[in-house]
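Q: Focus on the shape:
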Amino acid sequence: MGHSLKILGRTSSINVRKVLWTCQELDIPYDREDWGIGFASTQSGEFLALNPNAQVPVIIDDNGVLWESNTICRYLVSLHQRHDLLPTEPAARARVEQWMDWQATELNPSWGYAFHALVRKNPDYQDPQRIKAGVKSWNDKMGLLEQQLIKTGAYVAGNDFTLADILIGLSMHRWWMTPMEHPSYPAVSAYYETLSQRPGFKTFALDGHN
């Protein structure tokens, strides 16, 4: 399928890496430009014309401009008809998408304070009580993932690797690499080892990313 694709965003962004790993699973070519912290400003008029939220990633392809990382991933998988990654049958698709949405609305917000404090060393995030609360919140969410993986015995949405595993896999790696207390979650540990065998996880998680 001939289809040009440009991705705007720095690889240090976990949301950009969602899209890059998805492209690797799809085996599709793309051009990428560095935008965001340390690179071209997302506050520029040029970028804001593409995404008024001033956030990466943004993609530009034959169908136009798209932003919001989870939406971009859904779009690319659907465009290339990879129904193994995102089923077309409504119930099966919903099971994948509920975990994608959980990653964006529940898991991601839980790490905000602790990650900025412990990894980014941001001086505005150094309240010990808030760090402690943030670590607990993050670990509690990962405990929910542990229970789900115990149920499935494999991947987040069931027996097979899906788009939800790309998103949650990157988030799990960020949790694991943050210097803080990590409860014993055997199912999460096994899941981490399983994902570690995938080239996309090796490239966009293990190779020095957080």
User: Anything to note?
Assistant: Residues 128-152 form the longest helix (25 residues). The beta strands are 5-8, 31-33, 58-61, 64-67. The first strand starts at residue 5 and ends at 8.
